[in-house]
Automatic annotation (TrEMBL), chains A, D:
<dbReference type="InterPro" id="IPR012791">
    <property type="entry name" value="3-oxoacid_CoA-transf_B"/>
</dbReference>
<protein>
    <submittedName>
        <fullName>3-oxoadipate CoA-transferase subunit B</fullName>
    </submittedName>
</protein>
<comment type="similarity">
    <text>Belongs to the 3-oxoacid CoA-transferase subunit B family.</text>
</comment>
<dbReference type="GO" id="GO:0008410">
    <property type="term" value="F:CoA-transferase activity"/>
</dbReference>
<keyword id="KW-0808">Transferase</keyword>
<dbReference type="InterPro" id="IPR037171">
    <property type="entry name" value="NagB/RpiA_transferase-like"/>
</dbReference>
<dbReference type="Pfam" id="PF01144">
    <property type="entry name" value="CoA_trans"/>
</dbReference>
<dbReference type="InterPro" id="IPR004165">
    <property type="entry name" value="CoA_trans_fam_I"/>
</dbReference>
UniProtKB/TrEMBL annotation, chains B, C:
<dbReference type="Pfam" id="PF01144">
    <property type="entry name" value="CoA_trans"/>
</dbReference>
<keyword id="KW-0808">Transferase</keyword>
<dbReference type="InterPro" id="IPR012792">
    <property type="entry name" value="3-oxoacid_CoA-transf_A"/>
</dbReference>
<comment type="similarity">
    <text>Belongs to the 3-oxoacid CoA-transferase subunit A family.</text>
</comment>
<dbReference type="InterPro" id="IPR004163">
    <property type="entry name" value="CoA_transf_BS"/>
</dbReference>
<dbReference type="InterPro" id="IPR004165">
    <property type="entry name" value="CoA_trans_fam_I"/>
</dbReference>
<protein>
    <submittedName>
        <fullName>3-oxoadipate CoA-transferase subunit A</fullName>
    </submittedName>
</protein>
<dbReference type="GO" id="GO:0008410">
    <property type="term" value="F:CoA-transferase activity"/>
</dbReference>
<dbReference type="InterPro" id="IPR037171">
    <property type="entry name" value="NagB/RpiA_transferase-like"/>
</dbReference>
Length: 230, 225, 225, 230
């Protein structure tokens, strides 16, 4: 199922249902990507957003490894080892694509030319700080890839994640405790429980799924506003 | 002048111990596997390798690591599902690691090739990876100062080369190759096939011959092996 | 999304007084003459124009200058055998001039497009054109700090565009177009002809559509005029 | 006529003739460009060096406006307004050429990838400082083009000029009085009267044409050494 775009200026609580499943979450993110945008979808769950973009959305996908106008994942007989996405998964080349090298690809990101980038996260702060590259665990091998470049490299950075970790602790926090990927870079936070705006104005709930803003606010250590100011 | 050979061992001759080697590829796409295998046979050791990843599976860069030839990796994403060789060396403390955000990695090599002394990048500001780096606010935005990464050698994979040394790539296998070619003192490219002068479209040449010192022609290598 | 039009006036609509306009071309090669003529009709004034030269003969950029619309030129080589319009304005004190070494001009625009805050360039060190600029020695070499040049608008000439907005150029008419396209808020390209999606080789696209806001299709412009 | 490459370590005085004509000077420069070099020839007189390169020299010409492998000037029926050299003169495209944009072209120069660049000059100092872009005259319109990039952008910078100005003053000087193009960048100075090495070791005469080293030294305000140390 998909939800309609919420009316401007009003927070919508979708009750009588549970939190969003992974596919539903991807569909909500896809719903909010403006027509004809240039979009980078991060590795992992964000990649699935592509499956929910309407065929006529006009959205053009960028992949950090040097392609604009990337097509869907390749079927078995289409696999070409020279053509993959950032997750090294074989993809396809629709008409109108363009290839470029890594310095040009990251110039495109760093220069602020992408409209939207969708990333996963360990934590997001109320100001929009992002932590998504490193758990900080002493035995973890650090690996950043393009995460820091993407974090600062799009006009809008959307994060998609579950709102709570497996141990029940919130992942939307006052201050990130995990090592940061970027400062004040996230604009919208898509979770199974709710969609938030984050940034200089703090946290504002746009939609909730199977819960109310008040219920969520009680479980979070941040102040959650509503679009309608209540 | 670009030297063209069908012999992988000739292609990598003279790489010195202690060299900084830029290795192309993003995962296996664009990875110069035949050159790396030759480098293993060639024997240079104590290498610093600059590459996006730290090897996949047991071949290519992973095999070079497994052979104990690499002192230090400079890369953006060492930890992958199939990076067991690097993971093991790292956990045993047998290899040094410098993690660089992918775009800074590419831009630092571009700077080396383009004669830029250093540049202010917004990537990584306020993170662990910018600790100790010079910071500056320009026009209201925060930046960190990043320095060039220059290679003694670049090993890259391309699609076709012409007799002069001009290169074209194929799809997303282009990735780091064109940047690394500009950033190394000695650039060695493996290509599927060398074509005659005039067969590459001058509008579509990605790496002009000035950046290419040696080409390994894989079609000639196969024919003779 | 790239808007495609056959109407030059529509192509330049909305350019504001006081705008910084990047104008492609090296001499007449790559000069977007039709767009400049439309800009003259459009009437924006008090412009800062960034271009390699300061106009040739009486058409194109020279005509814009002659119309009194340009407050300041930022360029590398204003003085040419046929730059009488600029020469006259300059000698009469009616136009401001900032001379920038050609490579710094290109790299400063690249920096604007690539999100680089500033960079250390070895070009111009110890010369009049580096006076007052921050200087630094890096690894034994002297550099001056150069800042990005960002455009409100870029007017460029390309060869072909596709329906999505991807561009290819022709021979040395490529020059500043691809760099300027990345460095402006609003990039407008004139092309000889717009082709269908799939007609341009994805390996040979020089300016991907993300950098192109509007295309003036000269073949459509001619057909309707 | 052309001169043989002078024997290493010996200064050769070509007497019994006058100073070099413009064509002869270009031929001497061409003689000294190593086989298979990547070379940029500056606007004006340096451009004529191309006419003296052997067909089998393997030299590949770079033009700052975005081409490697540039061909000779176009004949009337070959003229293509989209294909010119840095002097805006129509040229041709032989097989094996490559085009690139201005940022890439100047990255190639600034990055030190060209082997040789040949420039004209107003003055060259004994240390190899170059002045070739601006007379400093109050009414002159300053125009630098690619001169400063070229001055620092090749492994070897050759300058070709007359040794003396029209008023008889030497153009090889202790300190340039014209505004500088680059510091300590010239390695070899080709003049109608003599070929010099310049740089940290000062001025060394390699060849003279129609005059002796001693005669030249008497007319210059710099110390001129000989390769053989006499």
């Amino acid at each position: 199922m998909t939800f309609p775009i919420p009316p401007a200026g009003r927070t919508v609580e979708h009750l009588g249902r549970g939190p969003l499943g992974r596919d539903e979450l991807a569909a909500v993110v896809a719903r909010d990507i403006p027509r004809d945008s240039f979009v980078n979808l991060g590795i992992g769950q964000p990649t699935t957003v592509a499956d929910h973009l309407a065929a006529d959305s006009g959205v053009i996908l960028h992949t950090e490894n040097g392609m604009l106008g990337m097509g869907p994942a390749a079927s078995a007989d289409e696999v070409d080892p020279d053509l993959t996405n950032a997750g090294k998964i074989p993809v396809t080349e629709p008409p109108g694509a363009a290839y470029f090298h890594h310095a040009d690809s990251f110039a495109m990101m760093r220069g602020g030319h992408l409209d939207v980038c969708v990333l996963g996260a360990y934590q997001v702060s109320e100001r929009g700080d992002l932590a998504n590259w490193h758990t900080g665990a002493p035995d973890a091998i650090p690996a950043v890839g393009g995460a820091m470049d993407l974090a600062i490299g799009a006009k809008d950075v959307f994060v998609m994640m579950t709102l709570f970790a497996r141990d029940g602790s919130p992942k939307l926090v006052r201050e990130c405790t995990y090592p940061l990927t970027g400062l004040a870079c996230v604009s919208r936070l898509y979770t199974d429980q709710a969609l938030f705006q984050v940034g200089p104005g703090g946290v504002t709930a746009v939609e909730t799924y199977g819960t109310t803003v008040d219920e969520l606010a009680a479980r979070l250590d941040v102040t959650v506003s509503r679009l309608d100011g209540r | 002048m670009t030297a063209i050979t069908g012999d992988p061992d000739e292609a990598v001759a003279g790489i010195a111990d202690g060299a900084t080697v830029l290795v192309g590829g993003f995962g296996m796409a664009g990875m110069p596997v035949t050159l790396i295998e030759a480098l293993i046979r060639q024997g240079a050791t104590d290498l610093t390798v600059v590459s996006n990843n730290a090897g996949n599976g047991d071949t290519g860069l992973a095999a070079l690591l497994a052979a104990g030839r690499v002192r230090k990796m400079i890369c953006s994403f060492p930890r992958q599902s199939d990076s067991w060789v690097f993971d093991g060396l790292y956990r045993e403390g047998r290899i040094e690691l410098e993690v660089v955000p992918q775009g800074n990695l590419a831009e630092r090599m571009r700077a080396a090739g383009a004669g830029i002394g250093a540049f202010f990048s917004p990537t990584g500001v306020g993170t662990l990876l910018a600790e100790g780096k010079e910071r500056r606010t320009i026009d209201g935005r925060e930046y960190v100062l990043e320095y060039p990464i220059k290679g003694d050698v670049a090993l890259i994979g391309a699609y076709l080369g012409d007799r002069r040394g001009n290169l074209v790539y194929r799809k997303t296998a282009r990735n780091f190759g064109p940047v690394m070619a500009t950033a190394a003192t000695l650039t060695i490219a493996e290509v599927r096939r060398v074509v005659e002068l005039g067969e590459l479209d001058p509008e579509a040449v990605v790496t002009p011959s000035i950046y290419v010192d040696r080409i390994l022609d894989l079609s000639a290598a196969e024919a003779s092996s």
